[in-house]
Write a structure and sequence with these properties.
Largest sheet: none
Radius of gyration: 29 Å
Helix content: 55-70%
CATH topology: MetI-like fold
Number of domains: 1
Shape: elongated
Strand content: under 5%
Distance between the termini: 74 Å
CATH superfamily: MetI-like
CATH architecture: Orthogonal Bundle
CATH class: Mainly Alpha
């Protein structure tokens, strides 16, 4: 008796069952990230970046809202407390005028950071515009801008700042805080923008030979559109790294000029002014120098660490 045959055809899954069985990653392919996306993913895994960002964020909050950290007036003092050592009543002690050093260090972050940030913005803005225009157009204009930049680049920083500040702001009478802060920012920027220009010029010379620039030129785009619409976003990375590191250096430059008596002066409260006020009492009252110098060192170090982390994240050779 013949055995019953069994059909070899099995039930095929329906379209909905097949779609449900596919992994979610296959249904939604990951969108490719660009340079900045890859850099951000890399930075989030770097402890140095996280530590530096936390310190800088704390400093920015301190500069914007000093009342959150102290309720004392940084300009009010009592000579009976002059040069007293740190205690439970005054954590950092008192300065030569009997003013609380802790309160002055907190409020001093504002002027120092404002000078550093604005000097960096002006430096990068001037240097980037000249570097992009000279690098893209080339020819006699590039040579003219390069020679003009070399004039400022050849000036020693301290000597150039002394000449500018003593000429524009003689040390007579009580200085206007806004005026002296503006002059310090312009002095630092005038002596530093050639570095930003050279960095941006090198990036622009490399970018103008790329296919996307040639395509934009072939389609009839104007030089201004090519420079600011196509080249600028692709040339920002090296200048951003320089700006991050330079910001800390500019804060240190403000302290240097203030120590020499050329930068910020009382009644402005800044770390540089505090260091300048302590120079004659370092041997008898070292706490006058130690605390503002500590704030300054930590701030400069945080920006340098941040710049190093950004540089490594944006450098394809580090991948």
């Amino acid at each position: 008796m013949p055995e019953p045959t069994v059909s070899a055809t099995t039930a095929q899954p329906t379209d909905s069952e097949r779609t449900a069985a596919e992994p979610a990653s296959a249904a939604r392919p990951e969108k490719p990230r660009g340079l900045w996306g890859d850099a951000w993913q890399d930075l989030r895994r770097r402890p140095m970046f996280l530590v530096a960002s936390a310190i800088i964020l704390l400093l920015l909050v301190m500069a914007a809202f000093p009342q959150l950290f102290t309720s004392l007036d940084p300009t009010r003092g009592s000579l009976s407390h002059a040069r007293e050592l740190p205690s439970a009543e005054a954590w950092f002690g008192y300065d030569t005028q009997g003013r609380d050093i802790y309160a002055r260090a907190i409020y001093g972050a504002r002027a120092s950071i404002i000078v550093g940030v604005l000097a960096t913005v002006v430096t990068v803005l001037i240097g980037s515009i000249f570097g992009l225009v000279g690098g893209y157009l080339g020819g006699w204009l590039d040579n003219l801008l390069s020679r003009f930049a070399e004039i400022f680049l050849g000036l020693p920083f301290v000597l150039g700042a002394i000449v500018i500040l003593t000429t524009l702001n003689p040390a007579t009478g009580i200085p206007d805080p806004v005026r002296i802060i503006t002059l310090v920012i312009l002095s630092i920027s005038a002596l530093s923008w050639p570095i930003a220009m050279r960095i941006m010029r090198s990036a622009a010379i490399s970018a103008r030979e790329q296919d996307y620039v040639k395509a934009a030129r072939a389609l009839g785009a104007s030089p201004a559109r090519i420079i600011f619409r196509h080249m600028l976003p692709n040339c920002l990375a090296p200048v951003l790294v320089y700006a991050t590191i330079a910001l800390g250096g500019f804060i240190g430059a403000e302290a240097t000029l203030s120590f020499l008596g050329l930068g910020l002066r009382s009644p402005v409260v800044s770390w540089g002014v505090m260091i300048a006020d302590s120079r004659d009492y370092i041997s008898v009252a070292p706490h006058l120098l130690m605390f503002p110098a500590g704030f300054l060192v930590v701030t400069v170090l945080a920006f340098v660490m941040l710049g190093d982390a950004v540089r490594d994240a944006l450098d394809p050779k580090q991948k």
